[in-house]
Amino acid sequence: MSELPRKKLILVVHGVGQQVPGESVGLLTAALHEQPGTDTIAANLLIPEDRSPEDTGRINMFPCHTIRRRTAESDALFAEVYWADVATTSQRFIGIVFQLFQVILGLGHLVRESAEQAYKDHHFLRWLANMGVLILHGPIAAINCLVLLLCAVAMGFDLTGYSGIVKNPEDRFLWPFIFGAITILAGVILHHRTNRYLMCHFFQWLIVFSVIGIVLSWTWHVDEVTDTSVRLWETAPGAVQPLEDLSNDPPDPGGEFTSNNLKNYVEDEVCDWAGSQYEECATGLGGAFSVAAFFIHVEWMIWMVLLGGTCFLILLHFATRFRLFGNEPKPRPPALAPVALSAMMISWLFALSLIWAVTLFIYPEFGGHRALFLSSFFPVVVHWMMLLILMLEGAFLTGYAIRRYNHSMKKNGPQSYFDSNGQPKPPPRIILSDVLSVTIMIGPFLLILIMLLHARTGYNLALGSTPMGQALVSVSGLLLGKFMIVAVILGIGIYYFRDRVAVGLGIANDIINYKRLEQWSPHASDRVYPQRERIRGRFIRVAKDMIERHEPSEIIIVAHSQGTIIALDALRTDRTGAAAQRRVFDGEVREDRVWKLVTMGSPFSHLYGYYFPDFFKVPSKQDTYLSEWINIFRVDDPIGTHIGAKA
To answer: What predicted TM-score, i.e. pTM, was given to this entire model?
Structure first.
């Protein structure tokens, strides 16, 4: 009697990026040698995802492409663990814009978990990093959302012929009141429908500022209709100074600060940016634009707090990093928190300036002859120049470090990859290298200097009275007129190359989603990572289903890039949590069944283990189901490297 063919199961786990179902398993089987007379069968399956007990909706299905090769000696079943659709990236322009903001705000998850590990003994640093995320996710995001929606609706009324709603004194403050009520209702509904703690935090602040907007709109509506004013508080003599510092008006004698004073103040502050078009700006404001101007001034104060706290965090970070105070027996792991928080703020301003610029290109008289926009992002050109300088500096220095590393490899040969103890040397760190990290962390200091300059001196008065200020005003005025055109051209470029942009955002989002929290808890074992658990559930479902179908004696997992993180997460037996979650494959472990793992280009040590060492420790053999593990990597790969204690 002839022996039965040896059965093997090969699970393929793809990496990040825009993946096509079945592509990974197809490429793997095509690269393997096929013996003559091999019987090949391909099948496309739909496998149901696991459902949580409280989920009563429809069952989600995901594709699983399989290829079976049978010969007289072997029977191999290849199956793909497909997970790219868990966080899909839209190919449409609007979808790409939303994806960009999702990536920017998603950095907050990296900030909080990095701070938890890097600042274990410094609660104040951890609090600063957490508050930075909550401020950007909460009041700043909510204010920007309200301002953009208010201005977009007002622009829609004006462009469609309903300009009276925007400009008529009887209506221009009444409809923002109705808009605020609708926003509150939407915020309450969306807050109730989501379980993600940062989204709940955002909706709470959206409701708060919507209530403030309703109060302002109704108060100013009554003021205009009845020609009255609501007293807000008493002012001391000299507390309210004239707008023009050079005027000869006598000091303010004190008295009442009313709702009309507040409206006139924010409108004057905004129209100060219109320069010679002050009168046109004053007539173009009112209604939604006056409410937006108030929110912009509030946002300025919040930005000052956020930037000041971030700069303080960076200074304390370097103080602890170089041990300027305190004694630590062990070196501190590199902190991602200040870098990611700085990157969040810089990229947030960059993305918002693009949106405002495109809006102004469509509607040049938007918000008082661009004044509302200019007062929001002072000065936009300075921010863009700062961003360009930081990007060029970081790219040059990082590229120079990689070039030196590659030159050393070519000159000294592969032996230069190992140190005197035979351990692999750290490869060039292209993702957040030390040079690039410092470059990004310079950003908040430059931004707060710009904002302090505006808050301390103003735009036309103090700047215009000094040679340096006049030069800055001239350069800004010269380039701001072309900024909208440049931004629109950039937007058209993003639209034209939207496929490639979507791939880049998808890669960033895949990495962020693995750390995206749904519910925050001080205990790591109680935290919920919905995207990670969903992907891990797919791996387990495919593996168990294929094992039940094929009954293999040998199981080989072939994983690439991010897929190696997924495979190692599912195959380890030392996970925290319930016992059923820790040892998911115990029923499939038998003496006659061998488990093997092949990882390729894995960022496990160089990226995840480097920045989150407590959460991504290399498992020992007894803590996995594996009997054999092979890691394949290029010595000049700056991301996918060796897997070990040294990164």
So the answer is: 0.81
